[in-house]
Amino acid sequence: MATTVPPRPATREEIAILARNAGLDLPPDLFEELVQAYGNVEPMLMRLRRGRDRADEPAQVFDPRKFMPRED
Amino acid sequence: MGTPLHELTIAEAGRRFRARTLSPVELTQAYLARIAALDSTLNSFITLTPERALDEARAAERLFAQGIDTGPMQGIPYGLKDIYDTAGLLTTAHSKLLETHVPTQDSAVQARLRAGGGVLLGKQATWEFAMGGPSLDLPWPPARNPWDLSRSPMGSSSGAGAAIAAGLCPAATGSDTGGSIRMPASVCGIAGLKPTYGLVSRYGVQPNSYSFDHCGPMAWTVEDCALMLTVMAGYDPRDPGSLDLPPEDYAAGLSAPVAGLRIGVVRHWYEDELEAAPAVIAAMDASIATFRRLGCTVSEVRLPSLRTFTDSKMPLTAAEIFTLHEHDLRTRPRVFGRSMRFRILAGALLRADDYVQAMRARAELTAITFAVMKNVDILLTAGSAQPAPELLPDEPPTFFGAKTPSLTAQFNLTGQPALAVCNGFDAAGLPLGMQLAGRPGEDALVLRLGHAFERATQFRHRRPEIDVSAQAVAAQ
Fold first, then answer.
1. CA B247 – CA B86 distance, rounded (Å)
2. Within an 8 Å CB–CB cutoff, is residue B349 touching chain A?
3. Cβ B402–A30 below 8 Å, yes or no?
4. How far is the alpha carbon of A4 from chain B, nearest alpha carbon, in Å?
5. d(C-alpha B363, C-alpha B375), whole Å
6. Exactly one of B180, B209, B339, B469 is catalytic; which is it?
7. Which of A36, A48, A70 lies nearest to residue B312, judging by beta carbons?
8. In this predicted model, what pLDDT tens digit does every residue of B85-94 receive, in sequence order?
9. Is the distance from CB of B161 to CB of B385 less than 8 angstroms?
10. Is B157 known to be catalytic?
């Protein structure tokens, strides 16, 4: 039976992996800034992860007409 | 004694131009002199363009003499937030990264204001890329609030708010990604409109977050915002979010009656969730009484919590702004100010599903808000829970919405028009503001209600005593 891993704050090691995946190679003092900064947004991300109806679509809508060449 | 030239509204200056009792050159000279006298204290401008301004004022004067009228901005001096591109003129975003950046093209808004006969006084201070600050580690100092020079005009359209309140320009452009027009307008005691998303082109404006960025007018009065919006708004295929709507004169119906309009007060946002200052709550109660006297129907409504809106908005902003700056963050992160860097770094760590979940929340919150607005025409809430804060650098740096949810960003999430209007002063004489938010596309209605409020109250007659306080600071 599948289980859900309860959300918990990322460890410094996990943040380092996420940063590396994002292409960031930060010196120690800026890595500290990143850890602090992520600590501010992470609780928001955790609160966003909740059960939703599969039909709940995101707010952005792809409109192919916007990509037609302009007349001029 | 008549009204000093620097206190003329756009509407009044326009009437005098057309009656030939005032020259655009005379008005421009008055503002340039006032800027020269006061802005070394206020720091509201980054770049001044006095010669160009006088040339443009003379050109406007010639048009009036020839009987040519290009609209309400003809001959009106204005400032541009320094994220709006100006061809051949420094555009810095208040950042070391763009310290010598000179665009080759005008932003769409600047092109419209220029074609409309406006007189560009210069480029105005912001927070770095309309995001990080206030900061002391940038090439230019942060702007100060003319009502109390030890306080912040907030941001990020900080130069615009400070300059208009101080009478250094009658009109300015702002941008609003989470409240950057409405917060400075509220704490500087002026008017500022975040129009419906897509009404004013973002083309040629340094982006902050693509899906939240709004360009809009800031001025001393709501009427002046309406006059500016008439020139600034318009479909632009170069902006993917631009709305293809017919041109509208936003000042035309301003004086129509407001009796019968239904106003929904979102009291729990400022009173329960943010514990607003007693003066803010008193000003809101007095404003509600004013709207009732004007014949509006006022009732309280409940919407999702500010925390819920902020939780959706800030991860989206973090992700979008990181994609804008990721190359510089990877290659030269120390060129950013510390506050800016702190506010954009975390976006690197967001996953795709974080973004999608936040967008799903955005859809849900927007639908709930508009469902409530089936029964009310306008939402009313405070513009800021507190008067202007002390001007202190963002040190240690903070992340928007982490400690306290935003009182303005919910209307960036929904994209609906939201107007900040001065609705009183606290015991120390600091201005207070409220927000009026309408349905998408109903910008004219929001402006009409704000204009009616200003005409029914006396708050537009009070100005900061900047001359005295500037001298005091200079003497320190």
1. 24
2. yes
3. no
4. 16
5. 20
6. B180
7. A48
8. 999 999 999 9
9. no
10. no
pLDDT digits (tens, 9 = 90+) for B17-37: 999 999 999 999 999 999 999
Looking at residue B103, its amino acid is P
Q: Which CATH number fits domain B7-475: 3.90.1300.10, 3.50.50.60, 2.40.10.10, 3.40.50.150?
A: 3.90.1300.10
> What is each CA distance from B29 to B5, B7, B12, B20, B169, in whole angstroms?
10, 14, 17, 17, 11
CB contact under 8 A, A38 and B346: yes
Cα torsion B90, B209, B200, B424: sign: negative
- Of B249, B230, B406, B225, nearest to B314 by C-alpha is B406
At CB < 8 Å, which residues of chain A contact B? 10, 15, 18-19, 22-26, 30, 33-34, 36-38, 40-41, 43-45, 47-49, 52, 56-60, 66, 70
CA–CA separation, B73 and B75 (whole Å): 6
> Which residues does chain B have within 8 Å of residue A44's beta carbon, measured at their own beta carbons?
310-311, 314-315, 401-402
Least CB–CB distance from A58: residue in B330, B341, B359: B359
Q: Provide the ipTM.
A: 0.91
| Closest residue of chain B to A17, computed from CA coordinates | B349
- Tell me, yes or no, if B180 is annotated catalytic: yes
Give buried/exposed letters for B129-158 (b at 16+ CB in 10 A, else e).
bbbbbbbebbebebbbbbbbbebbbbbbbb
Angstrom distance (rounded) from CA B469 to CA B162: 14
Rounded to the nearest 10 degrees, what angle do helices A28-48 and B352-372 cross at?
A: 50
Task: Kindly list the domain boundaries of chain B, sorted by start residue.
Answer: 7-475
Q: Please, how many CA atoms are within 13 Å of residue B5, restricted to the half-sphere of its CB?
A: 18
B156 is catalytic: yes
In single-letter form, the type of residue at position B259 comes to A
Q: For residue range A9-58, what is the model confidence (pLDDT) as tens digits?
A: 999 999 999 999 999 999 999 999 999 999 999 999 999 988 899 999 99
Q: Chain A contact for B103, CB < 8 A?
A: no
Rounded to whole angstroms, what are the CA distances from B444 to A14, B207, B255, B361? 50, 26, 11, 29
Rounded to 5 degrees, φ, ψ at B78 are -150, 165
B216-234 residues labelled b (16+ CB within 10 A) or e (exposed):
bbbbbbbbbbbbbbbbbbb
Q: pTM score > 0.90 for this model? A: yes
